[in-house]
């Protein structure tokens, strides 16, 4: 057994233990008093961020038995995921109070889901990766169904669970087939094996790749594996939706990148056209689907399918620019989806939250700062400068055009125009329509304000000065063999 | 030297941004203060921009250049600079913005704070477009500018404002996203790993590819100009926008189409520009005549002015398509003229609307008897708009027609028809609005121009006259830049093997001086 180095899993350990502490603290808090769950969870995540900094400084590149590594790629995503977790936690308390879903296990589940995400992006071995995937997903299923008195929430959890279980099965079968080809679940060994498959196993390698593609396709919600997303995003508590849209997507894409650019890079010729098709149908159907939605959460869910399509464009394009573009885009998209769903969650009141255009009508006049923040997020989602969304799309499409996929870029920009229409509808309602009488939203609490402020700063900051984030993404991407 | 002197162009972009932040942070109740800060800061920006005139050399070179690395891996930098073409467009922008804020002092009745903020953001964006020498930077300003304009139309516009705002946004965005893809293809094909305009223009891509890329650029700019048949967003946006929005739209935003052709599309794709030139010229002339004919039958004053813009901008595009030193100088001059006279027209229609809450020509008549000052200035503005000698419009149109003659005399002949039609629709409108008896009792008690309104209009009219008689002061700086551009593009067109047609020889620079 190789020497067991714990550094790479330290951040995850901190988060996991915090989850336990939160659970115990909730259990032992006397009835009628509020457990300090939020504070503990936030503290744990900040601690995990600090630990990650330490790992980045002192134990970069270390690995736990070769299965879990702390390379630049993993560290990049660790920072992202922990930040997403922290912001999601900050967005939660007001929303949970307003919808009566305040429970200690909420934060525990969220923290454990973060543990899964952290593992997902640092696994270099498919069994570890699968376990992490399940930790992340199972926690997320439970989170989605946490509002037990809302039938949509239950529906969301069941739907998420069943489709998620299906996709896990696909994934696992893919792992098994690749094991059959290579005799190992390690990415590096698989890469060698599929580059020069033993006689008769070339088809097996392709089948395994296809099954993994299906599994990841589910997790990142790309068409045609997207059907669960609108219902789940709509039914889940909004703070959870924000967490899923930002965190699950980022972590799933992280694993997707690592597996496909590291282990399956030799088969690029074969999977690249398939991913290109997924990208196009996701961009087109996601955006057209969003066009038809009147519920804001559903609209954002469809838009997230479209954004999965943009990200897949980056997977198709070859070269280091592509992987770094995907990673940069994920950072911007995480901030934007936390922000957009976060605004909806932040002003929920008496079990109601703004879900229709009527609900946000006149918000620009009544809540100018909040409306301005949501406008920034919507502009970034559209991909109009000056925003992270624009720089991200610019890089994705630069990579695509550079790799000769000009048609993908054309589809992408045209779908951005389509998306402008439905995002603008929200802006129109907020600024150009009179408020509907009788709709009064809650004031924004301090934690939520903080989270939204951070999101706005990130979105605008990456739009104006993307250099440092890009450099970090580039360094992280350079770890992937196939990115070169 | 102070920061201001060394970073004059950056200051012109940053000052309005800073002012926008200040206005946004002012307390909501102090409306007067918000308006004052916005107005004073935009006036200060104008004064600062006048410093450009002091240091500007009448050569073809880019001046006041600034470069800051931004995304070096992509060859993207913050590159600014102006030549004789952009100099005047920047000044036009800084000149019109304070007038717009002053002109909207009373017309904007709610959310004055946001209005000031969006006007200042818009100003920063517009100046940025005219100063950017990097494709990426250009695109950022180009697109970012849409947002404040969208809000200006959508919040403070008239009845169908939301429809107009969304249409404006989608049309313009649809045009520009394909240009973005063209940027990226150019980036790849050039192999230079830079978005610097001057470098890319030095080594054009193969002609076959140029055609595609030029088409993508041309679509974006043709929508902005707007050229027939991409003009359908314009009447909606112009008519529904508040007065200040219409003035900025007509005065500055439309100029960006022509400017984009001159600064980007033609220098980057000289061969394609040569091949597509006749088609652009044809569409331009169709626009001239079509815009004029539609104006002729408009019952609505604002629509009439809006369609007259289609016609005027057709002239500009004819000058651009002909691409001789004289015609392009005329086109640039005409862009400035149009900004001033159409800007003034929109102001005056807006003032009438504030008094009567209607824009229908049929509602008026005999205004000369009631509001003589208004009538006098309105008449002068109209004369400027129809290019009567002595006013600015004459110089511009004359240079365009003169410079385009050797390119294709048939186009010039057809465009001249537009000159006559312009006189017809404007003078007929003037007759119906100003002259005759006061037939509508509602018009009897109208008050004449206030001191504030005179402050808005007098500079515009004075400038229209000044540019009519002292045009060499302006062409002196425009012409070298244009001559340099024409020379550069012609050289590349001759260098490349092409079939289309023999290039038109550029007339001697002295030809411009004879133009008036």
Task: Please tell me about this protein's structure.
- The complex is a heterodimer of chains A (484) and B (516).
- Chain A has helices at residues 10-28, 37-58, 72-99, 104-122, 126-144, 151-182, 187-195, 202-219, 228-235, 238-263, 268-291, 296-316, 320-346, 357-360, 363-366, 368-382, 388-402, 406-432, 446-464, 467-477, and strands at residues 63-64, 68-69.
- With 484 residues, chain A is mostly helical.
- In chain A, strands 1-2 form a two-stranded antiparallel sheet.
- In chain A, strand 1 (63-64) and strand 2 form a beta hairpin.
- In chain A, helix 3 (72-99) packs antiparallel against helix 10, helix 11 (268-291) packs parallel to helix 18 (406-432) and helix 13 (320-346) runs antiparallel to helix 16.
- Chain B has 516 residues and is mainly α.
- In chain B, helix 15 runs antiparallel to helix 16 (325-356).
- Chain B is globular, with a radius of gyration of 22 Å.
Q: Which two chains form the greatest contact, residue counts included?
A: A-B, 30 and 33 residues
Count of helix runs of chain A: 20
Oligomer: heterodimer
- Low-pLDDT stretches of chain B are 498-516
List how many beta strands of chain A DSSP finds. 2
Computed structural class of chain A: mainly alpha
Taken in chain order, the helices and strands of chain A follow as: HHEEHHHHHHHHHHHHHHHHHH
Helix/strand order of chain B: HHHEEHHHHHHHHHHHHHHHHHHHH
Largest sheet of chain B: 2 strands, antiparallel
Low-pLDDT stretches of chain A = none
Output the radius of gyration of chain A.
Answer: 21 Å
Average pLDDT number of chain A:
91
User: What do the pLDDT scores of chain B average to?
Assistant: 89
Strand segment tally of chain B: 2
